[in-house]
C-alpha cells in the first residue's frame, strides 16, 4: 500500500529507466502474435501497419485540403465576377428605383460586407494552399 492513494495508472509507472526496458527483446514479446516471432518480425509488422496508417492520414488530409482549396478558389472567382456585375448595375438599379418613385437603396453596408467576404476567401485560399503544400512536402 502506498503512502498516498494513487490511481492505478500512476502506480504502474515503472520509473525513468522504462525506455531501456522498452528497447529490449522482452518488450517486443508482448506484441508477438506467435511464440517464435523475432524482434525483427514485430518491427516489420508495426512499421508496415503504422506506415500504412500514416500514409492514409497524410493522403486523406492532403486530399481534403486540396478539395477545400479548389472549392474556396471557385467560390472566390464566382463571387468576384458577381460582385463586378453587381457594382456595374448598382447605379442603374438606383436610377430605376428613383424613376418608380421609391427611395434609393444604400448599398454601402452591402458593398462592405461583400468585400469583407472576398477578403476572407482570399485568406482561406492562402491558408488552404499553404496546408496543401505542407502535405505535398511530406
Please give a structural write-up.
With 138 residues, the protein is mainly α. The protein has one domain. Helices cover 76% and strands 0% of the residues. It has 5 helices and no strands. The chain has helices spanning 8-11, 18-22, 25-29, 39-99, 108-137. The longest helix is centred in the middle third of the chain and has 61 residues, at 39-99. The two termini are 49 Å apart. The mean pLDDT is 77.
Summarize the structure.
The protein has one domain (8-137).
- Proportion in β-strands: under 5%
Rg (CA only): 31 Å
How many angstroms separate the termini?
49 Å
Number of strands: 0
The overall number of domains is 1
* Parts with pLDDT < 50 across at least 5 consecutive residues: none
What shape does the CA trace take? rod-shaped
Helix content: over 70%
Helix and strand run:
HHHHH
Oligomer: single chain
Secondary structure class reads: mainly alpha
The number of distinct helices, counting runs of at least 4 residues, comes to 5
- Biggest sheet layout: none
Can you give the mean pLDDT?
Answer: 77
Topology:
Layout: H1 8-11, H2 18-22, H3 25-29, H4 39-99, H5 108-137
Helix pairs in contact: 4-5
Which keywords apply here?
single chain, 138 residues, mainly alpha, 76% helix, rod-shaped
Amino acid at each position: 500500500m502506498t503512502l498516498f492513494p494513487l490511481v492505478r495508472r500512476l502506480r504502474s509507472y515503472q520509473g525513468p529507466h522504462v525506455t531501456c526496458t522498452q528497447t529490449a527483446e522482452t518488450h517486443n514479446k508482448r506484441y508477438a502474435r506467435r511464440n517464435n516471432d523475432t524482434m525483427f518480425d514485430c518491427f516489420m509488422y508495426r512499421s508496415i501497419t503504422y506506415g500504412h496508417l500514416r500514409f492514409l492520414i497524410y493522403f486523406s488530409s492532403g486530399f481534403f485540403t486540396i478539395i477545400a482549396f479548389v472549392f474556396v478558389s471557385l467560390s472566390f472567382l464566382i463571387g468576384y465576377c458577381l460582385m463586378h456585375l453587381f457594382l456595374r448595375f448598382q447605379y442603374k438599379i438606383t436610377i430605376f428605383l428613383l424613376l418608380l418613385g421609391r427611395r434609393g437603396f444604400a448599398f454601402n453596408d452591402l458593398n462592405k460586407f461583400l468585400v469583407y467576404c472576398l477578403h476572407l476567401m482570399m485568406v482561406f485560399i492562402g491558408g488552404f494552399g499553404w496546408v496543401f503544400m505542407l502535405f505535398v512536402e511530406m
